[in-house]
Amino acid sequence: MKIFFGLTLLLNLSFIFSEVDVYEKKNGKYIHWQGEIFGMHNKYRKKHCVPDLEAVQNIASTAQKTAKYLCSVNTLIHSNDNNYGENIYKAFFPKDTVVDNRIIVKKAVNEWYKENKLYDYLVPENSSKAQHFTQLIWKDTTEFGCGLSECIVDTNKIITIVCNYNPRGNISNKYKKNVLKPCS
Asked: What backbone torsions phi and psi does residue 169 show, to the nearest 5 degrees?
């Protein structure tokens, strides 16, 4: 199966949306892709000895609206909402591909974390290419919520993922306190 990741502009598009319930639980556990994204976030945070994040419904609802919008306009740009930190991701597949969203969210979080290779712990202010990574493990962030939207654009299936973080990370002069080296 060939998978394309990135940003593409397509004109005269027709959209079909599908959404999943945000943070649906069964027997007290997250189901579908939500459990995967929750676990991946906290797995990487543990590597840096920072507290687990708490999944919050209203933050997830905001992320879901943003994911749906970004999918509908087929773009990948960060919102201007300064209330939350934000990580975004987009994947492309042939339209008829059956996709397990748990695999896609795992890929998204892994890609965000891979930016750790671009982070300079000695001069953190110069690490602008690692901001997905730094937001992911930002110590002072305690809550998050994620949204996922699928749409069909011409011959492509597009999956857009948005995660919002509260309090937001990536604040100047606070990197050394909040982006800790791996401890395990």
From this structure: -105, -160
